[in-house]
Design brief:
This protein has 236 residues and is an alpha/beta fold. The protein has a single domain, classed as 3-Layer(aba) Sandwich (Rossmann fold), CATH 3.40.50. The chain has 7 helices and 9 strands, in the order βαββαβαβαββββααα. Strands 2-1-3-4-9-8-7-5-6 form a 9-stranded mixed beta sheet, with helices on both faces. α1 links the parallel β1 and β2. The chain is globular, with a radius of gyration of 16 Å. The termini are close together.
C-alpha cells in the first residue's frame, strides 16, 4: 500500500493516537512536518490518503503553505483519495471545498460533550453512540462545504464534524494522548488564563485530571472513526 501522508503544522500537534492506530493495523504513513520546513507535495495520488493535523494558526493567515495545501486537498477529493482533518485540518478541508472559516462564538479549550447527529450518516459513523466527551482547543469554526453532512455538534460550536463521502473533517480532537494533553496545557497556559471567562474553557489542572477517565472512550471513538476512514484508502 502507498503510505498515508500526515501533515503536521506545529511540533506539539502530531498524529498522536492516530499513529498508534495506523501502526497497529500495519498501515504505512509518512510525516510531512510543515513546521520543520517540509514542502507540500505537488501530487496527491502518490499517497493512499491525506491527514491534516491541528495548529495554532488560522487558515485565513497569509502563510506560504496554505494555498498549496488547499490545492492538494482539492486534487485529492477529485481523485477520490480520502482526506481526514483534525481541528485546523478540518478547517483546511472546509476552505478547500468551498466553505468558510470564521470566529467561533466562544473559545473551546478542554473536555466538552459533543452530540452525534441522529441521521443515517451519523449512525453509520458512530453506531449507537449518541455523544461523547471530546477534547477541544479552538477559537474558529468551519462552515459546511457543499455536499457535506453534519455528524457532530456541541453546545458551543454547531459544526464539530462532517463528512463529504469518504472524506472526514473534525473540529474537535479525537487523536489526543495523555502526553499531548499535558504538553498542550503547558504550552497554552497563557491562552487558558486569558480565556477563563469563556464557558467552554477549562483550567489546565482539570483537563489533565479528567484525561485518565476520558481518554479510553475517546480512543474507542477514534478507533471507530479511523477504521471507517481507512476503508476508503486507495489501493496500490
Amino acid at each position: 500500500m502507498k503510505p498515508i501522508a500526515i501533515f503536521r503544522f506545529a511540533a506539539a500537534e502530531g498524529p498522536g493516537y492516530l499513529a498508534e492506530f495506523l501502526d497497529a493495523h500495519a498501515i504505512p504513513w509518512k510525516l510531512i512536518a510543515i513546521d520543520a520546513g517540509d514542502t507540500v507535495p505537488v501530487f496527491a495520488d502518490v499517497f493512499a490518503g491525506l491527514v491534516f493535523m491541528g495548529g495554532p494558526m488560522s487558515v485565513n493567515d497569509d502563510l506560504p503553505w496554505i494555498a498549496p495545501v488547499l490545492s492538494l486537498i482539492r486534487e485529492a477529493v477529485a481523485d477520490d483519495t480520502p482526506v481526514l482533518g483534525h481541528c485546523l485540518g478540518g478547517q483546511l478541508i472546509s476552505k478547500a471545498l468551498g466553505g468558510a472559516v470564521t470566529r467561533n462564538p466562544v473559545k473551546e479549550i478542554g473536555w466538552g460533550a459533543v452530540t452525534v447527529v441522529d441521521h443515517a450518516a451519523g449512525r453509520a459513523a458512530f453506531g449507537e453512540l449518541c455523544g461523547f466527551d471530546a477534547f477541544h482547543w479552538h477559537g474558529e469554526t468551519f462552515s459546511l462545504p457543499p455536499h457535506a453532512v453534519l455528524l457532530l455538534s456541541s453546545a458551543h460550536c454547531a459544526h464539530q464534524a462532517y463528512a463529504v463521502g469518504k472524506h472526514l473533517a473534525l473540529q474537535c480532537h479525537v487523536e489526543m494522548t495523555d502526553a499531548m494533553v499535558a504538553e498542550w496545557c503547558e504550552i497554552g497556559a497563557d491562552e487558558i488564563a486569558a480565556n477563563l471567562a469563556s464557558p467552554a474553557v477549562q483550567q489546565a489542572a482539570d483537563m489533565q485530571q479528567q484525561a485518565a477517565a476520558k481518554l479510553p472512550q475517546l480512543h474507542r471513538v477514534a478507533e471507530q472513526l479511523y477504521t471507517r476512514w481507512i476503508a476508503g484508502l486507495k489501493p496500490r
